[in-house]
Every structure is written in structure tokens, then in C-alpha cells.
């Protein structure tokens, strides 16, 4: 389920990131993306467990949301990520 909150200046979505990005955000409509994704380290957040079955599944999932971020980002803008150094 996706929750959507908005006022005249802002939109906030709460839900699956890939679903929100692909179904609710138009292409080249975002000025800045600041990302703090799950690190695949096994941490539990309520009903979400930050651990994929394999590193390949985690990387595939990461490519999916990164591709959507690139699609929605306006040209000549920035994307900033917080990341775990072991994936670089």
C-alpha cells in the first residue's frame, strides 16, 4: 500500500520505493534525490528485514531503483547516496 500526502508545495510518498518511483513520479521531474537505501546487512525495521537472499538479488534490486531515479531526475541535477563502502 502506498500512502500519499501533499500540500501546495510538497508531495510525500510512503511505500515501496520502486513502485512509487515507477508509477507516481513523472520522468525528469525531480531536482534532487537524496537516498539512504537498505544496506543488506540484516537489520530489522518493524516488519522489514534488511537482508536479501543473495548479493546478486540485492544488486538487481539496487539497479531497479537507481534506474528509476535516473529516469525521474531532471538533467543537470544531482543524486546523493549514503552507502556502505563494501559495495564500492
In short, what is this structure?
The chain is an alpha+beta fold and 88 residues long. The chain is 30% helix and 33% strand.
Task: Give a description of the structure.
- By secondary structure, the protein is of the alpha+beta class.
- Helices cover 30% and strands 33% of the residues.
- It is built from 2 helices and 6 strands.
- It has helices spanning 17-24, 55-72, and strands spanning 3-6, 11-14, 30-35, 43-45, 48-50, 73-81.
- The strands form 3 sheets. It has a two-stranded antiparallel sheet. Strands 3-6 form a two-stranded parallel ribbon. It has a two-stranded antiparallel sheet with strand order 4-5.
- The mean pLDDT is 83.
Name some characteristics of this structure.
33% strand, 2 helices, two-stranded parallel sheet, two-stranded antiparallel sheet, alpha+beta, 88 residues
Helix and strand topology:
Layout: E1 3-6, E2 11-14, H1 17-24, E3 30-35, E4 43-45, E5 48-50, H2 55-72, E6 73-81
Helix pairs in contact: 1-2
What would the principal axes of the Cα set say about the shape? globular
Level of helix content? 25-40%
Rounded to an integer, what's the Rg over CA atoms?
A: 14 Å
The neighbouring-strand order within the major sheet is 1-2
Instruction: Tell me the span between the first and last alpha carbons.
Output: 33 Å
Low-confidence stretches: none
Number of helices: 2
Q: What is the residue-mean pLDDT, rounded to a whole number?
A: 83
Number of strands: 6
Amino acid at each position: 500500500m502506498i500512502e500519499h500526502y501533499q500540500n501546495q508545495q510538497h508531495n510525500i510518498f510512503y511505500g515501496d520505493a520502486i513502485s512509487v518511483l515507477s508509477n507516481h513520479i513523472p520522468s525528469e521531474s525531480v531536482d534532487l534525490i537524496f537516498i539512504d537505501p537498505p544496506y543488506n546487512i540484516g537489520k530489522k525495521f518493524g516488519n522489514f528485514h534488511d537482508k536479501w537472499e543473495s548479493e546478486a538479488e540485492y544488486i538487481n534490486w539496487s539497479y531497479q531503483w537507481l534506474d528509476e531515479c535516473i529516469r525521474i531526475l531532471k538533467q543537470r541535477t544531482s543524486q546523493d547516496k549514503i552507502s556502505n563502502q563494501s559495495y564500492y
